[in-house]
Design goal:
single chain; alpha+beta; two-stranded antiparallel sheet; 4 helices; 13% strand; globular
């Protein structure tokens, strides 16, 4: 998880929004936030304030990893390839 987090959020800034440009153009960024870069469009069950909380973000990431859903993170596939 550490390798994925430090790839997704190099600054380790829990308030960070993704720098990845979104489909609306160069001035629009992906709706991903926090240490784990949770995408709120893909996870409407989460609120931005939740995923910006390091304890919440990392606990939910650990749950996803335990379920085998690590493939959801772009950096996982960059580092380890597809599984």
């Amino acid at each position: 998880m550490w390798n994925v987090v430090t790839c997704e959020n190099k600054a380790l800034n829990p308030m960070l929004q993704s720098y990845f440009p979104y489909k609306d153009g160069p001035n629009s960024r992906e709706n991903s936030w926090g240490l784990a870069q949770w995408n709120l469009d893909a996870h409407p069950e989460f609120k931005r304030e939740q995923v910006q909380n390091p304890d919440f973000a990392l606990n939910e990431m650990a749950k996803s990893f335990n379920k085998g859903d690590y493939w959801k993170w772009t950096c996982y596939t960059k580092i380890y390839g597809k599984t």
